[in-house]
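Progress against Task 2.4 (sequence-to-structure conversion) is shown through the following example record, which the project officer requested during the mid-term review.
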Amino acid sequence: MYDGNGKINDNFDLNVEIYINRYSEIKEAVKVLSEVQKEYNCNCVLNIKCSTTPRG
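Structure tokens generated for the chain above:
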């Protein structure tokens, strides 16, 4: 993510895996990841898994 000079490398891949319990959590995750993608100009992949039990 950072180059050798401490600057952000805007050409990286970000893979995020989340466990959700409700549809609203999907919408929130997409919103946050979209903001990250805009700010850092990165390639983002969001993997969503449905959780039958809450995760801590």
